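Friendly challenge for the regulars: who can give me the structure tokens for this chain first? No prize, just bragging rights.
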Amino acid sequence: MINMTQNAKEQAAALAMAAYQAAVKDGSLPEAEISAAPVEIPRDASNGDFTTTFALAASKALRKPPRVIAQALLDHMDLTGSYFASAEIAGPGFLNFRLDSRWFQEVLKAIPQEGDRYGTSDALKGQKIMVEFVSANPTGPMHMGNARGGVLGDTLASVLAACGAEVSREFYVNDAGHQIDKFARSIYARCMQITQGEENYPFPEDGYQGEDIRELAQGFLAQAGAFPGETAEEAWLTAMSEYGLSVNLPKMKRDLQRYKIEYDTWFYESTLHDSGAVAEAAELLTKRGWTYEKDGALWLKTADILRENLRKAGKKEADIEKLDLKDDVLRRANGFYTYFAADIAYHWNKFAARGFDRVINIWGADHHGHVARLKGALDALGLDGSGRLDIVLMQLVKLLRDGEVVRMSKRTGKAISLSDLLDEVPVDAARWFFNAKPDTQMDFDLGLAVREDSENPIYYVEYAHARICSLLEKLAQEGVTVSGEADFSLLTTDAEQTLIKQLAALPDTVRSAARDYDPSYINRYLQELAACFHRFYTACHIRQEAPALASARLKLADETRMVLKNGLKLIGVDAPERM
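First reply, four minutes later:
Bragging rights claimed.
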């Protein structure tokens, strides 16, 4: 899998190291333990295409000014046969490299050679990774946090797979425990109010208040026929929870499919309880000495586990003592296991039973206090939760319309759900905007998301793809088609070469997105690629030029189309041919 940006970085580093060794050999520079030459891409293209800070980094070890070191490197550098046309010293001692035409030509040869696999790598080959995301309680409609987490998880899974990992997408269904009991009791209360009158049966203070609960109650009564009332409350709760889940879960699946999200596994919490896995995980912790009994309940020594982890991380004892560390209940005095116990068992299942090398959870920022506790519990089980479990915390979403915060749906008058959002905003726009940097709060502008102009980034990117398709179609009607062989050495203008450099950056961008668990890198890349293409298309004519140059530029446009399509596919967005 070809990565011409990485190839150039590695070659620049090798050239710098070879020059240093040559300078040491003839006595121009002293010998020291210098293992590598760091290479970066300058922010300002006027400073070259690649730069090494070797001279700055080695100045102390070599006891010489950086510019003296840089000059010695330049004096001993041989660029023959390399990707670089020249090298020069800049600033306090940077050594800047400028690319030769050969590199640009090889980029344009690599793209059609790899086709729809261009941008992928084997950086994570051999790793089995689970991404668990959304995992919304099935007690009501999915909300904006679920909408954001859905795209972040789905797109992160895509970039990890593009880097060679074996990736599994998973939804954890909380179909057991307190929230399901509350769900059933909420439906029951609405049934009682419908049959006996609201004034005759109080609704639970902590019950689910949404209109959807009333609709579920009406549906249940229609299905059940006779309803015996309060004397048989307990007998009806299981049936009501099962009915509610039978309605809500298929709707969640339909909404997620509409959102272009398909899961490999829907994992049900109830299976952990039914199989005894929760009790087994608690027993394992007990055998390892990490639990104790108090007031009839089973407690996890969470505070001790976290203190031990903090000490291993080098935290000072005085700072540790300032923290308000507390233990957690695993099994209540009534014999029921807590949600935390089920969560430990679930992650034990992920690692020990199903053999995932790494697990990534997409959680809301309000779960930040749960992260260290869960990782610590897995450490206590010997599963290296600190090293193998990664949590991506995403910040809140604020919906805006005309600059005003929106909390209610115009259509339903209720809090906006994922389904409501997709009724108002195209799916591609929703996926684009929610694929924002996860650790920042985002403003979702409903008006911007439906605009058809360059201010709307998804429209701007999709339009670039459609514009190229239209160009290819029109030229084909005139008898001009993309040639398999083109003279890329003719592409020498700044607009052409800037576009080619951006095309070359996709593989590095995908690897960075996977490394940092931040798929929004793909959005930013595509916006810049679209901008590079629009500038190229404005500055460089095709029809009016000589056949050889026109053919090379047309080929460049077609390869831009390929790369735009590959990038859009990674974030689950269509690449339209007409707009």
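The longest strand covers residues 166-173. The chain is about 55% helix and 10% strand. Your move, everyone else.
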